[in-house]
UniProtKB/TrEMBL annotation:
It comes from the Bacteria. GO terms for molecular function: 2-oxoglutarate-dependent dioxygenase activity; iron ion binding. It comes from Candidatus Pseudothioglobus singularis PS1. The lineage of its organism: Bacteria, Pseudomonadati, Pseudomonadota, Gammaproteobacteria, Candidatus Pseudothioglobaceae. Keywords: Dioxygenase, Iron, Metal-binding, Oxidoreductase. The keyword Metal-binding applies. This is Phytanoyl-CoA dioxygenase. PANTHER family: PHYTANOYL-COA DIOXYGENASE DOMAIN CONTAINING 1, PHYTANOYL-COA DIOXYGENASE DOMAIN-CONTAINING PROTEIN 1. It holds the Pfam family PhyH.
Length: 271
């Protein structure tokens, strides 16, 4: 649970860093489980790349129907122009998502042992719903950039309620593509929504035309086990990982079930 000082800090900055949120045992459980899931995954069954540049953000059926599944998305640079893998399978995955918190016994047990819903309530969510989980790899040398974005763009409710819980499974720093954020930027209006288009596929709806403020991003360098709580309107980013160290993280997003979940959000889940 958070102290009143931590809650004030979150409200002021739009994010909060909480050290030692996950134990070494819990981190290892998640990382070892991911390895087993990847071993069991047949890469010939899908070539879905998670393109981290927002304009090209993956919107194939495999991605769009992953809200209540456990699916595997490749790093863009893991597959060459001829469709051949440039790295071994374990090093090719950008992320696993988006429902392992419900469907996988090990993820579920670890996540349910954390007081994420209670913290969500402290931060204003009345009826917390764990909507989406992601195991993010930021693979050595090829880990893709994640463009500056606000999470409510992708998980939209009325009123807006999304909060991201991002946990470093390994040390995250400038070398391997740690998170970066505009401190206090959660007061910036939501720029756009990513949604299902009536004609099929997905589209962005522009909500606010103004440019991002000309402010430097703050580096959120953290040790393994640290939680970073991200307000749904906080602009955040991570650079490519050009180092030879991975930067694994686990994230889960809460929304308030008392708020209206948009029918045209890309993520639709039946669980
Ligand atoms: O892990 C990253 O590099 C980005 C994660 C992110 O932006 C998110 O979970 O919203």
């Amino acid at each position: 649970m958070l102290t009143s000082t931590q809650i004030s800090s979150y409200n002021k900055n739009g994010y909060l860093v909480v050290k030692d949120f996950l134990s070494d045992t819990q981190r290892k459980l998640l990382m070892e489980r991911a390895e087993v899931l990847i071993d069991d995954f047949d890469p010939s069954s899908s070539h879905s790349i998670f393109t981290t540049n927002e304009q090209e953000r993956s919107s194939d059926d495999y991605f769009l129907s992953s809200g209540d599944q456990i699916r595997f998305f490749f790093e863009e640079k893991a597959i060459d122009s001829k469709g051949n893998f440039t790295v071994p399978k374990q090093k090719s995955i950008n992320k696993i998502g988006h429902a392992q918190h419900e469907l996988d016994p090990i993820y579920k047990k670890v996540i349910n042992s954390l007081d994420i819903p209670e913290i969500g309530k402290q931060l204003g969510i009345q009826k917390p719903r764990k909507l989406q989980s992601m195991h993010i790899f930021k693979q050595p040398n090829i880990g893709g950039e994640v463009g500056l974005h606000q999470d409510s763009t992708f998980l939209y409710t009325s009123p807006k309620s999304c909060i991201g819980f991002w946990v470093a499974l390994e040390d995250a720093n400038i070398e391997n593509g740690c998170l970066q954020a505009i401190t206090g930027g959660h007061t910036i209006p939501l720029k756009k929504r990513f949604k299902l288009a009536k004609s099929g596929g997905t589209e962005f709806e522009i909500l606010d035309e103004s440019p991002w403020p000309n402010t430097a991003l703050d580096l959120l360098e953290v040790k393994a086990g640290t939680l970073i709580i991200l307000h749904g309107q906080l602009p955040h980013y991570s650079a490519e990982n050009t180092s030879n160290k991975s930067r694994q993280a686990f994230s889960i997003h809460l929304v308030d079930d008392n708020c209206h979940y948009a029918e045209d959000n890309w993520l639709q889940s039946s669980i």
